[in-house]
Amino acid sequence: MKLSSTLPGILILLFFLAQPLPGIAETTGAQEFLLLYSNNVNGEIEPCG
Amino acid sequence: MDGGSLLFKTNHGLGGGGAGQARITAETIVKAYNLIGYDAVGIGRRDLAAGLDFLLEIRGKSQFDWLSANIIDMDTDQPVFKPFVTRQLGGLSLAIIGLTGQIRSDSKLLDENVVVEPWRDNLPSIISKLEASHDFLILLTDLDAGNCREIAEMYPMVNLIVQAREVDSGKPPTYLTDSAILVGAGQKGKHIGVMEVDWRPTRKWRSAGQQDLTAGKKERIRLQSQMKQLRERPELKNHYDNIRERLTALENTLTQLERQEKSAAESVSSFDNRFVAMNVSLPDHPAVLDLVNENKKLVEALNRKSPPSTGEAVSARGFVGWTACRECHRKQVQSWQASRHATSHLTLVEKGQQFNLECLPCHVTGADSNDPAAAIGRAADLQVVGCESCHGPGSIHRLNPASQRTAPITEKICLACHTPEQDDSFDFEGGLKKLKCEIQDDRAGGLR
After folding, report:
1. Which of A21, A32, A36, A40 to mutate to test the interface with B (most CBs of B within 10 A)?
2. pLDDT per residue over B286-296, tens digit each?
3. Measured between alpha carbons, how far is B173 from B183 in angstroms, rounded to an integer?
4. CB B53 within 8 A of CB B115
């Protein structure tokens, strides 16, 4: 089974978001901005095994 | 920011043995979101699965805002949560509004005096409050696409809708109107959306002419195709000439539109949207890893101490375990023992997930997804993905092997666990060959 090697899930998502990028937006110029978004995490934390 | 449906995978209310574990996990997710520095999360129906009181408790532990403009306390006629938050970004003023999808008024998820009102009752006043003083309006919601489109059409000042939608991965943003786009990053935290926005004072993502241009180009392809077919049919020459005339007129219109669009391009806003897959190759953040490990310990402590099931722990009804199968099918069992099915429960133990009720149904023989806690403490020869996981319960077959054959294996059985999200390269035929325990069945046309 490949169950152990898929679905990085939120653990890695969290790592990515925990990098220097800010939570919602970072100004990059006069009227430019960056948005980071997620949805439907659905209580998922980590793959099973 | 997060479109919603963060905490739970159901919106029907938590029941059975999994409620305690689900609450623990929800709290861990919130701690992680605090750590990341999320600004705002829309409240989706799934966030209310453990009830309003639990979400209020969670809100007290959150360093970000839970938003909903339409969860209303009937006693005070006020929203229970913040309806919106605002942020200043590089000279622009952004407002983020939360809207929750409809929940039946008799739902036990809400208090007696709390309701989720239709968005038409609340959104207009909020929009009118925010539109004059904000440059960019974002909506976080688990409303369906039809409602999102209606909102975009009614309120051109809404510019971005982050929708909690049930798709595995992110899909390209959809234009709802010239001034609003709909985005969603996919579920289970497997992707995040990254959108770079260049926002112009016209507050439009595209000009009206762009729509006409797109439609015109499609029509051109259609007419060209028709002409190609008619060219080989001289008896339809009149029809051919008619199409050719229409195509010539369309070409002229498109040339004009393209010219107009070229000059309008500088006044419309633009975005660059991409989805980042959270691949296993990305290293774990130490602080987040600590949270996840702590979550595993809490789940283990909860379920080990008091397995939340009324089911029988050691045996599973109708299942006899692989050691019983071995009495007659020695060769097949030997082959199976070399497969990863034979160590499925061990992989959970190695990861400290053997008490995780979400995992057990696919790692233990005879586990019931409606009562996964019953699989905790199963006999050793059931703590595997054994023969009966694929062939079905063997107790009747064992009593009368000649007349009571087990059911044929079908791909559907495998796909219950080898889902695309768990195993995106699953190959039914290849998987069976790999297991090498099949015997061709000459009666039912399947493999046994």
Report:
1. A40
2. 999 999 999 99
3. 5
4. no
Best CA proximity match to B230, nearest among B243, B218, B220: B243
Q: Which of B173, B57, B48 is nearest to B115 (CA)?
A: B48
Instruction: Report ipTM (2 d.p.).
Output: 0.77
Within a 13 Å sphere around the CA of A34, how many CA atoms are in the beta-carbon half? 13
The answer to whether residue B395 scores a pLDDT higher than 60 is yes
Residue whose C-alpha is closest to residue B291's, from B60, B29, B9:
B29
Decide: B68 and B98 in contact? Cβ < 8 Å: yes
State how far the alpha carbon of B127 is from the alpha carbons of B33, B137, B432, in Å: 28, 9, 58
Candidates A10, A38, A46, partner chain B, best to mutate (most B CBs within 10 A): A38
Cβ–Cβ below 8 Å for A34 and B187: no
Residues of chain B with C-beta less than 8 angstroms from the C-beta of A14: 32, 35-36, 189, 285, 288
Q: How far is B211 from chain A (nearest CA, A)?
A: 24
Phi/psi for B446 (5° steps) reads -125, -175
Contacts of B28 in chain A (CB under 8 A): 45
| Three-class SS of B1-55 | CECCCCCCCCCCCCCHHHHHHHHHHHHHHHHHHHHHCCCEEECCHHHHCCCHHHH
pLDDT digits (tens, 9 = 90+) for B7-29: 998 877 776 668 889 999 999 99
pTM of this structure: 0.79
Task: Tell me if B1 and A33 make a contact (CB, 8 A cut-off).
Answer: no
User: Beta-carbon neighbour count of residue B224 at 10 Å?
Assistant: 12
Q: Is B274 left (phi over 0), alpha (psi -120 to 50) or beta?
A: beta
Q: Does A20 touch chain B (CB under 8 A)?
A: no
d(CA B78, CA B355): 42
CA distance B38 to B1: 6
Domain residue ranges in chain A: 1-49
Q: Could B351 and A24 be called an inter-chain contact, meaning their C-beta atoms sit closer than 8 Å?
A: no
**Interface contact flag, B278 A31, Cβ < 8 Å:** no
Other Cβ atoms less than 10 A from the Cβ of B395: the count is 15
